[in-house]
Amino acid sequence: MRSNAMESSWLNQSCGVFEMLFSKFDIEEALEELVDELAMRTINVTIQIVGGAAVALQDSREELTQDIDAFHSPSLGFDEAVESVRRKRDWPLTWFNDAATMFASHYETEKDWDLKIKRDGVIVMVAGVRLLLAMKLLAGRGRRDATDIDRLLDACRVTSVKQAQEIFDTYYPTESIAKMALRQIEERFANRGGVDLDKLCPQG
Questions:
Q1: Does residue 144 share a domain with residue 98?
Q2: Structural contact between residues 49 and 69, judged by C-beta atoms closer than 8 angstroms
Q3: 77 Rama class: left (phi>0) / alpha (psi -120 to 50) / beta
Q4: How many domains, in total, are found in the chain?
């Protein structure tokens, strides 16, 4: 198992620093292993995958990410299960983390989460593309989020700034799109007309 996982992982060099990048295959295998570890410890928990890992799982195109961002309720033994997977795969300490909690919406519904795994008291959900787009527009960390934003705009069939804003407002009615993200979508949709959002990306 580990040999396959390591073969599909990538080492990216940036400014002389190497970082490990995970493919969709890596993410799926690691989540299955994490569920096994949690089940072995009889831990009942719901895990919600967001960020680049969720984009990789939702997008049919190849996507690499440096970690798996997730929300989950505190559970005794959870961190030990995460560490067990990390040791088996020789992955970085931050391979699975909750750093994206600051971007949580609190306005999403059950329809915004897609079931990935349900086994032995463990549920793994993946954020839907509309929620992911809104989260990326809130974060708007320049090049770090730019590719994901473009892919999610395609996935939601968004063709105007107005449509992107309406999706964002659904999940963050009291927040604003990050400046760099707003600049990106304004440049992308310059000289394009608006189209009815509900027809292109229905909320149901």
A1: no
A2: yes
A3: left
A4: 2
Which amino acid appears at position 39 of this protein? A
**Residues near 39 by beta carbon (within 8 Å), at least 6 away in sequence:** 119, 120, 121, 122
Q: What is the pTM of this model?
A: 0.85
Residue 178 lies in domain: 131-200
- Cα–Cα nearest to 132, from 82, 81, 172: 172
Minimal CA–CA distance to 177: which of 147, 144, 143, 133?
133
Per-residue tens of pLDDT for the chain, all 204 residues: 343 444 455 555 444 445 789 999 999 999 999 999 999 999 999 999 999 999 999 987 777 899 999 999 989 999 999 999 999 999 999 999 999 999 999 999 999 999 999 999 999 999 999 999 999 999 999 888 999 999 999 999 999 999 999 999 999 999 999 999 999 999 999 966 544 434 444 444
Q: Are 135 and 176 in contact (CB under 8 A)?
A: no
